[in-house]
Amino acid sequence: MNVSEKDFEYMVENQTTNIISLLVDEKHLTMHQAFDIWFKSETYKHLNNPATGLYFQSPRYVYSYLCDEKSI
């Protein structure tokens, strides 16, 4: 799927917001811990690559990959 750069950035930001919220709510992490885990993850790197199509998946789907990656 082709999206504009602006739309892609919006979708990545939206995913980030949702995943950070899930980490805080479900894993009981602080915001700082959640940001640290998310922004240092391979999942985040893949999300920022439009070729993966990960930006178009549900936040829960991406979150599950992050949890598997980090074993949390």
Question: What is the fold's blueprint, element by element?
Answer:
Elements: H1 5-27, H2 31-39, H3 42-47, H4 59-70
Helix pairs in contact: 1-2, 1-4
Summarize the structure.
The protein is 69% helix and 0% strand. By secondary structure, the protein is mainly α. The chain has one domain.
Question: How would you describe this structure to a colleague?
Answer:
This protein is mainly α and 72 residues long. It has one domain. The chain has four helices and no strands. It has helices spanning 5-27, 31-39, 42-47, 59-70. The longest helix has 23 residues, at 5-27. The protein is globular, with a radius of gyration of 12 Å. The chain starts with a helix and ends with a helix.
Percent strand = under 5%
Q: Given the structure, what is the number of helices?
A: 4
**Based on helices, strands and strand pairing, what is the structural class?**
mainly alpha
Radius of gyration: 12 Å
Domains counted in the coordinates: how many? 1
The level of helicity is 55-70%
What is the 3D form? globular
Distance between the termini: 31 Å
Number of strands: 0
| Overall residue-averaged pLDDT value | 96
Runs in which pLDDT lies below 50 for 5 or more consecutive residues are none
Give me the strand/helix succession: HHHH
Largest sheet: none
List keywords for this structure.
single chain, 72 residues, mainly alpha, 4 helices, 69% helix
